[in-house]
Design brief:
elongated, 6% strand, three-stranded antiparallel beta sheet, 6 helices, mainly alpha, 159 residues
């Protein structure tokens, strides 16, 4: 009885490996697990959709680490699931709508933050000294929201 030959792991060139690792570090600095950033980096430069097994093998990360991070990336809209007829394995690809999703997340986040600031403003008496800071925060959130909405519209017009 012969064992099946192990699947050959694609090798990244040193510059692409540095890119993938650099993206991992970049996202880690933004509060995203390094593995998530590495997955994004790999999917950005991949020629084809990759399975979780492919990702684990190429990145030399456990399947559990891939699974945890891929769920977050799929739910955020940065990565999409791909299925092929006749194959049971799900593959993953960097989403064509990823950058639009990033802007939409920022808009939703700003709206949620605005609601919290508004609750604080409503809870304070009119003469409270913190109102000035909260009102300035509200103006900043409104400014940022308009900026992200304009960016999103411009992005959609170009793509």
């Amino acid at each position: 009885m012969s064992a099946a030959a192990p699947k050959k792991r694609p090798v990244l060139s040193p510059p692409l490996e540095r890119f993938v690792e650099g993206l991992g570090m970049h996202f880690e600095n933004q509060g995203v697990p390094r593995t998530g950033g590495r997955i994004l980096g790999l999917l950005l430069v991949a020629n084809e959709p990759l399975s979780a097994e492919d990702l684990a093998s190429i990145l030399q990360v456990s399947r559990a680490g891939i699974s945890t991070n891929i769920r977050l990336l799929v739910s955020s809209g940065l990565v999409e699931k791909i299925s092929f007829p006749g194959r049971r394995t799900v593959h993953f690809a960097f989403s064509d709508a990823a950058w639009e999703q990033v802007m939409q997340v920022e808009i939703r986040s700003a709206a949620a933050f605005r609601n919290l600031v508004e609750q604080a403003l409503n809870a304070l008496p009119a003469a409270h000294p913190a109102r000035t800071r909260l009102e300035k925060t509200m103006r900043w959130v409104d400014f940022a929201t308009r900026y992200y909405q304009q960016m999103l519209e411009a992005w959609r017009a170009r793509h």
